[in-house]
Here is the input.
Amino acid sequence: MNVLSVNLGIPRSNPWKNGSGRTGIDKRPVAGRVAVAAPGPKGTGAVGLAGDEVFDVKHHGGDDQAVYAYAREDLDGWERELGRPLANGSFGENLTTAGLDVNGALIGERWRIGPDVVLEVSCPRIPCGTFQGWLERDGWIKQFTRAGLPGAYLRVVEPGELGAGDGVEVLYRPAHEVTIALAFRALTLEPALLPDLLAADALPEETRALVRRRSAV
Here is the structure.
């Protein structure tokens, strides 16, 4: 299991979302090592990787969405389905991984990447209009949602530096069954699963509050 590439955003205009003006979804692989640290609360545009930034600060960034990982194997599957090449970073991910079941990761699972960095799986990515516009594909939000392969947001537990080629070691898996894939299904197409998410202590408080509102738990 390893990191194939570390991808940072190139700020560009965002014609797909009212009020944002700019987006950092255009992520490109970078050479060398990149510093990683906890960015602090959501709302500032800060994220975990030095040199990266988000502009929709209401929905992105902050400690619980510090780093976004997506598996190269899933990108390869989308290449076949969409009939187009997808470079590392195409889905706006910071880390493109190989050999790692990102969607099968448990909420609260911890990964050591390289010698320094420890990240904790926090929540799934929920697709938005910017993502659909970026891929220039009508109906993409529904298609992506049906597939149930959202990729994982991670928080920074131990800061440091990481780079392409770094190994990924799973340090810890909590004693519950709430995976990224399950959380995504619950938050999108299968709301009956929402109460199950509360078994994951590491679920972001923002998501826990949403679960309680939607399921009256």
Observations:
- The helical segments are 72-82, 129-135, 140-147, 180-187, 205-215.
- The chain is about 20% helix and 25% strand.
- The first helix runs from residue 72 to 82.
- The two ends are 38 Å apart (CA to CA).
